[in-house]
Amino acid sequence: MGNVKYESIQSDLKNSGINFYLVSQNKTWEIERDKKILWSPKLAKNGTKNIGYESMKKVRQGDLIFNVHHQTIYSVSQAVSRAKSCKKIDSDGFDDKNNWNSDGWEIALNMVEVSFPLKPHLGFFKNHYSKAFNKNGRLNQRYLSPLDNQEVQYLINQSTEIFETVRSFISRSQRVTVNYDGNPKEFIIDKKNFSQFKTEFEEGKSSAANIASHKDYYKIFENNQIVGEMGELIIFEYLHNEYPDAKIIGRSQNLDKEDGNDNLGYDIEIIFSNGKKTLIDVKTSTVKTGDFFVSSKEKEVARQVDNDPNISYLFYYLSELKTDYGKVYLSKISLTDLKLEPASYRASPVTNMNKKIINK
Fold first, then answer.
1. Domain Protein NO VEIN C-terminal: where (predicted)?
2. Is 14 among the domain residues?
3. CA 68/CA 93 separation, integer angstroms
């Protein structure tokens, strides 16, 4: 069996950090397909853990899933988010016999249709039974299962449709690692955003080199709009993965092109299930650590909510944002953690500017 297809994307696949899963949707496939989701209960009906349901919690944003119905892979999907708590779908034909608990997990998907029957390949899966396939080469009776590297290689090499779809997904995927307090969290952002950032960053660096030293350039550039916008995008995705049950709202123009407002004093709003809120302003730097600027509006809003037990305000400070790899470091800072020093003043003329002063 040739491995040409897989080998052509092996390096990109490894760098992306994408994991693969197979979901068996015989009872629910039509509704889940139309809604572009995966849904499972959190626990079995008797209250015990279920391997297939537990796998839902392991899926990361950007991971790829083979959707199976009647022993045929009918689509390849990319997880848009981690699993979020979600009540059972209220729809005719979805668990009409009430076999599942209402409390469940939901994963949003970006789906691409393919067609790959598994029955002609029982021989391979019989000799390679795993978490997804049993010793007879058939699917195990569980909802979601991880696929190992050999299974992924086989499916990619056997189907041009699957190969092209996987290649398309990984070409658009950039794995980012945000390290907070020694605890790294990985997730996927759209690679076009990262590529655009890299292009604009390098162009700006070339221009700045004519007027500043390399050291001065970084001081100039850390407050550049390009760096700041990339930081906002990274934190926006980070929060979706960190708080899957919360509502994450982009408030800046960068995150909401239509209704965003850069004069609010914060970039992102989190609304938790208990009604409490956190307002976040994102600061981004290309160097390890350093000072950052706080606007009068940011300071005002942070102090306004200081005595409100239901609202908190934090600066999310990203450092070491580079163009050659997706690893950054995060600090979460409150206003009281900062020493504020006036760095500039607004100047307004108090005399008639048209009046000429003549020195005799």
1. 232-319
2. yes
3. 18
For residue 222, give its domain range.
176-337
Q: Are residues 211 and 112 in the same domain?
A: no
Judgement on whether residues 324 and 181 belong to the same structural domain of the protein: yes
Q: Is there a contact between 241 and 231 (Cβ–Cβ < 8 Å)?
A: no
Q: Quick one: residue 275, left, alpha or beta (phi over 0 = left, psi -120 to 50 = alpha)? A: left
Residue 283 counted as domain residue? yes
Dihedral of the alpha carbons of 109, 112, 113, 117, in degrees to the nearest 10: -80
Q: What is the pLDDT of residue 352?
A: 65
Q: How far apart are CA 257 and CA 165, in angstroms?
A: 29
Tell me: do 165 and 194 sit in the same domain.
no
My answer on whether 30 and 62 are in the same domain is: yes
Q: What is the pLDDT of residue 55?
A: 95
Answer whether residue 360 shows pLDDT above 60. Answer: no
344-353: pLDDT as tens digits: 777 888 766 5
d(CA 196, CA 291): 26
**Total count of domains within the chain:** 2
**Bridge partners of 281?**
315
| Nearest CA among 32, 22, 18 for reference residue 168 | 18
Pairing state between β 247-250 and 268-271: antiparallel
The pLDDT score that the predictor gives to residue 194 is 64
- Does 275 lie in the same domain as 155? no
Structure confidence by residue, pLDDT tens digits, 84-124: 888 988 887 788 778 888 999 999 999 999 999 999 999 99
**Beta strands per DSSP E along 272-354:** 277-284, 311-319, 327-333
Cα 359 to chain centroid, rounded: 64
* Mean pLDDT, rounded, for 317-323: 84
State the CB neighbour count (10 A cutoff) for residue 31: 17
The verdict on residue 129 lying in a domain is yes
What average pLDDT is seen over the chain?
85
- pLDDT at res. 212: 46
pLDDT of residue 3: 75
